[in-house]
Amino acid sequence: MINTSIPLEKLNSMSIGNMVEYLGIEFTEVTSEYVCAKMPVDARTKQPFGLLHGGASVVLAESLGSVASMLSLENP
User: Fold this and answer.
1) Residues 6 or more apart whose Cβ sits within 8 Å of residue 75
2) What is the pLDDT of residues 13-72, one digit of tens each?
3) Residue 74: pLDDT band by 50, 70, 90 thresholds?
4) Is the model's pLDDT at 76 over the cut of 70?
5) Virtual CA dihedral for 43, 48, 50, 53, nearest 10 degrees?
6) Which residue out of 29, 33, 62, 74 is catalytically annotated?
7) Is the whole model's pTM more than 0.85, yes or no?
8) Which domains does the chain have, with CATH numbers?
9) 44-to-2, 4, 22, 52 alpha-carbon distances in Å
Protein backbone atom coordinates (compact mmCIF):
# COMPACT_ATOMS: atom_id res chain seq x y z
CA MET A 1 0.00 0.00 0.00
CA ILE A 2 1.31 3.43 -0.94
CA ASN A 3 1.73 6.05 1.80
CA THR A 4 -0.45 9.03 0.84
CA SER A 5 0.65 11.32 3.69
CA ILE A 6 3.51 12.95 1.74
CA PRO A 7 2.17 16.05 -0.04
CA LEU A 8 2.55 16.41 -3.81
CA GLU A 9 4.47 19.63 -3.20
CA LYS A 10 7.16 17.66 -1.35
CA LEU A 11 7.38 15.02 -4.08
CA ASN A 12 7.71 17.70 -6.74
CA SER A 13 10.29 19.64 -4.73
CA MET A 14 12.45 16.49 -4.58
CA SER A 15 12.68 16.71 -8.38
CA ILE A 16 14.37 20.11 -8.46
CA GLY A 17 17.78 20.01 -10.10
CA ASN A 18 17.54 16.58 -11.68
CA MET A 19 16.27 14.88 -14.84
CA VAL A 20 12.67 14.82 -13.61
CA GLU A 21 12.63 18.61 -13.38
CA TYR A 22 14.52 19.02 -16.68
CA LEU A 23 11.94 16.95 -18.57
CA GLY A 24 9.06 18.84 -16.91
CA ILE A 25 7.65 15.81 -15.11
CA GLU A 26 5.16 16.76 -12.41
CA PHE A 27 3.61 14.38 -9.89
CA THR A 28 -0.13 15.00 -9.92
CA GLU A 29 -1.79 12.35 -7.74
CA VAL A 30 -0.93 9.79 -5.09
CA THR A 31 -3.45 7.19 -3.93
CA SER A 32 -3.05 4.04 -1.88
CA GLU A 33 -2.81 2.11 -5.18
CA TYR A 34 -0.88 4.30 -7.65
CA VAL A 35 1.20 7.41 -8.30
CA CYS A 36 0.35 9.62 -11.28
CA ALA A 37 2.48 12.20 -13.09
CA LYS A 38 2.44 14.18 -16.31
CA MET A 39 5.23 15.05 -18.73
CA PRO A 40 5.07 17.54 -21.60
CA VAL A 41 5.83 16.41 -25.12
CA ASP A 42 8.07 19.26 -26.28
CA ALA A 43 11.62 19.87 -27.53
CA ARG A 44 13.06 18.24 -24.38
CA THR A 45 11.19 14.97 -24.86
CA LYS A 46 10.87 14.60 -28.66
CA GLN A 47 13.15 12.67 -30.98
CA PRO A 48 14.41 14.31 -34.21
CA PHE A 49 11.30 13.11 -36.10
CA GLY A 50 9.00 15.03 -33.75
CA LEU A 51 7.70 11.99 -31.88
CA LEU A 52 7.96 11.30 -28.17
CA HIS A 53 11.41 9.84 -27.47
CA GLY A 54 11.31 6.35 -25.98
CA GLY A 55 13.96 7.33 -23.45
CA ALA A 56 11.71 10.08 -22.10
CA SER A 57 8.94 7.52 -21.65
CA VAL A 58 11.34 5.31 -19.71
CA VAL A 59 12.37 8.22 -17.47
CA LEU A 60 8.69 8.87 -16.69
CA ALA A 61 7.99 5.18 -15.97
CA GLU A 62 11.14 4.73 -13.85
CA SER A 63 10.39 7.89 -11.86
CA LEU A 64 6.84 6.74 -11.12
CA GLY A 65 8.05 3.27 -10.14
CA SER A 66 10.77 4.62 -7.88
CA VAL A 67 8.45 7.05 -6.10
CA ALA A 68 5.72 4.43 -5.68
CA SER A 69 8.28 1.98 -4.28
CA MET A 70 9.69 4.56 -1.87
CA LEU A 71 6.19 5.48 -0.68
CA SER A 72 5.39 1.79 -0.12
CA LEU A 73 8.17 1.37 2.44
CA GLU A 74 7.19 1.39 6.11
CA ASN A 75 9.68 4.18 6.93
CA PRO A 76 10.58 6.09 3.72
Assistant:
1) none
2) 999 999 999 999 999 999 999 999 999 999 999 999 999 999 999 999 999 999 999 999
3) confident
4) no
5) -80
6) 62
7) yes
8) 8-71 (3.10.129.10)
9) 30, 30, 8, 9
Per this entry, what is the length of the chain?
A: 76
Q: List, in order, residues 6 or more apart from 64 with CB less than 8 Å away.
A: 35, 36, 37
**33 noted as active-site residue:** no
Which 3 state secondary structure label does DSSP give 33? coil
Show Cβ contacts of residue 28 under 8 Å, excluding neighbours closer than 6 positions.
Answer: 8, 36, 37, 38
Residue 34 near residue 69, CB atoms below 8 Å: no
Q: Which of 28, 6, 25 is nearest to 73 (CA)?
A: 6
